[in-house]
Write a structure and sequence with these properties.
The complex is a heterodimer. Chain A is an alpha+beta fold. Chain A has one domain: Glutaredoxin (3-Layer(aba) Sandwich). Chain A has four helices and five strands, in the order H-E-H-H-E-E-E-H-E. The two termini of chain A are 31 Å apart. Chain B has 23 helices and 17 strands. A five-stranded mixed β-sheet of chain B has the order 10-9-13-11-12. In chain B, strands 2-1-3-4 form a four-stranded mixed β-sheet, with helices on one face. Chains A and B meet through helix 1, helix 2, strand 2 and strand 5 of A and strand 2, helix 4, helix 5, helix 8 and helix 10 of B.
Chain lengths: 131, 595
């Protein structure tokens, strides 16, 4: 995009706001968001990211799922963290998601629609952008 | 087969100890006996950070938040909520007995944390400017460019009560006003991202998670004070943060949010990154400016303050990362909203890097006025391995240690200073009974000796003298008079040093002498370190009655100083022992004694 004017910025914001709310990117309605700050990467978030992508390929889900990255959520003691947002399931944040549990996450949560024991953590605070 | 409900049972240490495990099993049992185990999944989760009201059970998707649940409540939760779809009102959290709070969002501060600076961290993709824009990003810039005068921006900042988050707490609005009023056609904006305290990573995480918030604030500052150029001074040890800043700057330029004629307003602003070589003193603003100019990073006396004479002698606003990250929110939400958070004199929130002997280490953001006890025991989940809390070090090498009796004081710039510590940038290191205060003081003093720039005598000589005295005490050669010497040198350094590095370097030592004088005296008189950290004061021995002669310690000993026949008690040759503690750790029979 070239340089924007004020109106273009406002239009872009409105459009992206909607996208971010439904979290529906490119027609894919499942989102996996991996925390990739220094703490996450040190705990193996890059390997988790790769393992998730591999598991999605294996279970033929790659065309339905977007895997994204974000910064540190603050839960450094349970890094790597992965947030899962998908229809018909409550949004969930998983911690301690090392690469060896990546496939279990894909199978249990995405395919069987059930949650993983002992890996769920809470958002650390309410989102001020929504309240 | 999809579940209709999910019941989350907190499996954090606090809740486990109040029988959350039994709740978990009862819920599964009830679901089976009532024939709904295919409709509901019971899951164990990590700590919800609301331990004082535990055990906590949350039901999704209705977001029912139950507190102080007992194992016998399992029946009602399944029978009412899962089968009939009604919440168990008697278990819902409420602030006091009269209110009928139900929805999670309505529970005021149920999680204790409140995220302004970290609003986007862990939410948006930091390498995608669109996501920042979608969450009200660059909206404050719109207001500043097209709707507000610089005077209004300054008035708003002043009214908000925002103060510098780098540690000293100077009101941001006043700093900007001084730079605006300072005569001169060329002015600069500098972002101080030279985070150097051991154990602190607030600024790094903010930049890694939300780089655009810093860029937006710098453009706003530029427009307000009349500067067209900004520098971000960041240490080279933060490669990911630097990378994300570079991406963010490129994206902002492409969109016309940086560079010439921003959004068609006619205002130009550009930002460059300057890498620091990792000198702690360059976090001091005047030393930082020297470093940007390409000179050796050393502080100079103030005044003149940088707002009058800063970079290349020109008026310069220099703000810390966290301060800047607050600015766009203050301007979009308004001063009234911002000043409603926090205490009388300290407004808004503060980010802390919570580390040390704590269960839930992490990056937290709390409203000013939160107590240290809430941070350590509710958000942090208490001390690791059930050990006893000893103290918390705030503000890194410039801060002091705060002990149990002061944990209920609300956090603000003033209270922390009154406690002999300081807000500092926000490192918070929790210590337990296994930490030795003399050893910790020595660690921080050694850090200051290494990092002192050497320009002024009090700091250059004082830190070294104090470090030598502390070292003497930890080696068991201390005298009682050394304590008075430490205090005397410490006070002199505090008064006479050129900058805050020396001015605050004595804080850890002075505060530990104040709170733990008995422990210092124990080192001096009894030649004893109760935490077992000071190696010269520790002796390892084997209790012949407990030793079964397995030989594990002898095999593990790196200097082969343990000997003995098989199946007979072994002996440690203390003249060769290097006190690594390996034998103590590996012995399964508790036969190795540390004295």
């Amino acid at each position: 995009m070239a340089k924007m004017t004020l109106d273009q910025l406002r239009a872009l914001r409105a459009q992206k706001q909607e996208e971010l709310e439904t979290r529906n990117v490119e027609g894919k309605d499942i989102q996996l968001i991996v925390g990739m700050g220094t703490c996450g990467i040190a705990a193996g978030a890059k390997q988790t990211f790769d393992a998730i992508v591999a598991a999605l390929e294996k279970h033929k889900l790659a065309n339905k799922v977007v895997v994204r990255q974000t910064g540190c959520m603050g839960l450094c003691y349970v890094e790597p963290t992965v947030e899962v947002i998908m229809p018909d399931m409550p949004p969930v944040i998983y911690g301690k998601m090392t690469s060896d549990v990546a496939e279990e996450l894909v199978v249990k949560h995405l395919i069987e629609h059930s949650l993983l024991d002992n890996h769920i953590f809470d958002k650390p605070a309410i989102d001020i952008a929504k309240h | 087969m999809a579940y209709k409900n999910f019941i989350l049972v907190c499996g954090g240490t606090g809740c486990e100890s109040s029988r959350s495990d039994e709740i978990y099993r009862n819920l599964i049992k009830e679901a089976e006996s009532l024939g709904v185990s295919r409709d509901v999944q019971v899951v164990k989760t990590g700590c919800f950070g609301f331990c004082e009201k535990g055990p906590i059970v949350k039901v999704l998707p209705s977001e029912s938040f139950y507190v102080q649940v007992k194992p016998e409540d399992a029946h009602d939760i399944i029978a009412e909520q899962v089968i009939k779809g009604r919440e168990v009102t008697r278990l819902l959290y409420r602030k006091d007995k009269k209110t009928e709070t139900t929805k999670l969002e309505e529970i005021e501060f149920y999680q204790k944390q409140f995220r302004i600076v970290l609003r986007n961290c862990g939410v948006i993709n930091p390498e995608n400017i669109d996501e920042y824009i979608a969450r009200d990003g660059y909206k404050a810039l719109e207001r500043v460019l097209f709707e507000m005068t610089p005077e209004e921006v300054i008035a708003e900042l002043k009214a908000s009560g925002l103060r510098g988050r780098g540690g000293a707490g100077f009101p941001t609005g006043m700093k900007w006003e001084a730079a605006r009023k300072a005569p001169g056609d060329i002015k600069y904006i500098v972002c101080n991202a030279d985070e150097g305290d051991p154990g602190a990573y607030m600024d790094r995480s903010t930049i890694e998670g939300d780089p655009h918030s810093i860029l937006e604030a710098m453009v706003i500052a530029g427009k307000t004070v009349g500067a067209n150029f900004g520098y971000i001074y960041i240490r080279a040890e933060y490669p990911l943060a630097i990378e994300r800043l570079k991406i963010a700057i490129a994206q902002a330029k492409e969109y016309g949010l940086l560079g010439k004629d921003i959004l068609g307003s006619g205002f130009d602003f550009d930002i460059e990154i300057r890498l620091g070589a990792g000198a702690f003193v360059c976090g001091e603003e005047t030393a930082l400016l020297q470093s940007i100019e390409g000179k050796r990073g050393m502080p100079r006396p103030k005044p003149p303050f940088p707002a009058m004479k800063g970079l290349w002698g020109k008026p310069t606003v220099i703000n810390n990362v966290e301060t800047l990250a607050n600015v766009p929110v203050v301007l979009t939400r308004g001063a009234n909203w911002f000043s409603s958070i926090g205490t009388d004199k300290s407004k808004g929130t503060k980010v802390f890097a919570l580390t040390g002997k704590i269960n839930n280490s992490g990056l937290i953001e709390v409203p000013m006025g939160t107590t240290l006890r809430e941070i350590i025991f509710d958000i942090g989940g208490g001390i690791r391995n059930g050990k006893k809390f000893k103290g918390v070090q705030t503000g890194g090498p410039s801060g002091g240690i705060i002990v149990d009796k002061d944990l209920d004081k609300p956090i603000s710039y003033e209270t922390l200073t009154a406690l002999g510590s300081m807000m500092g940038s926000g490192g918070m290191i929790v210590m337990d009974e296994d930490d030795c205060v003399v050893d910790v003081s020595k660690f921080y003093m050694t850090f200051c000796v290494d990092e002192s720039c050497g320009k002024c005598a009090p700091c250059r000589i004082g830190t070294k003298q104090m470090q030598m005295l502390l070292d003497k005490i930890t080696r068991g050669q201390g005298e009682e008079a050394d304590l008075a010497k430490l205090e005397q040198i410490g006070k002199a350094m505090t008064k006479a040093s050129l900058c805050l590095l020396g001015g605050s370097a004595a804080n850890p030592t002075l505060s530990t002498i104040r709170h733990f004088r008995d422990e210092y005296l124990e080192h001096i008189h009894d030649k004893k370190c109760r935490a077992g950290k000071c190696k010269d004061l520790v002796v390892y021995e084997i209790n012949p009655e407990k030793c079964i002669g397995c030989g594990l310690c002898a095999r593990r000993c790196p200097v082969q100083c343990i000997s003995g026949e098989k199946k007979k008690a072994h002996v440690i040759d203390s003249s060769k022992c290097i006190k690594c503690g390996e034998c103590f750790t590996v012995c399964k029979f508790g036969a190795v004694i540390k004295r």
